[in-house]
Predict the 3D structure of the following.
Amino acid sequence: MPFLLLKDLPRYECLLEGAKEFPELDPSACVAYLNLLRTGDEVYGVIERYLSEHHISQGRFSVLMLLWRTSQMRCGGGEQTAENQGPRTPAELADAAGVTRATMTGLVDTLERDGLVRREPDPNDRRMMSVELTPEGVTFIKQMLPGHFRLMAELMEPLTEDERKTLVGLLNKILRHAPNCGQTPASSTLSN
């Protein structure tokens, strides 16, 4: 579902006029914000179409990628520690994906039904269940990732290497600032 429900963004001149009525309206901030959302929606749509061609949702793909990363860490050799084993339990997967445990249970249930993951007793704590990729899940990811990586590269193709680094830096700057936004009470109240 798109975050921005506007096909056409407002013209800058209209935002300048709006700022006369609403002094809190910063036209350049509004333009940047709306373009960020519109670009995010478009990129999300491109990836969503690719995933749907492979009959998988974004949430299920995220779980498979977390498990793939975990399996790659395990195959990399070296001593297994809590820091390098990656998420294994549904609770750890939920935390890593930023979703509720109930949502993760539903995602894992569907992936298990499709034969891409399996639940097994956790080797370190028999009271817990561990989630792992099945051989079919590994095959699915290996077949899907090359096209997914090509699509990411194609989406970023218009940007030079330096522009990509700048974009990442700017996005991270917004990301670090976002948790601090909206923390102050509204300075005005709504009236009828």
User: Anything to note?
Assistant: The first helix runs from residue 12 to 21. Residues 57-154 form a domain with the Arc Repressor Mutant, subunit A fold (CATH 1.10.10.10). The beta strands are 117-121, 129-133.
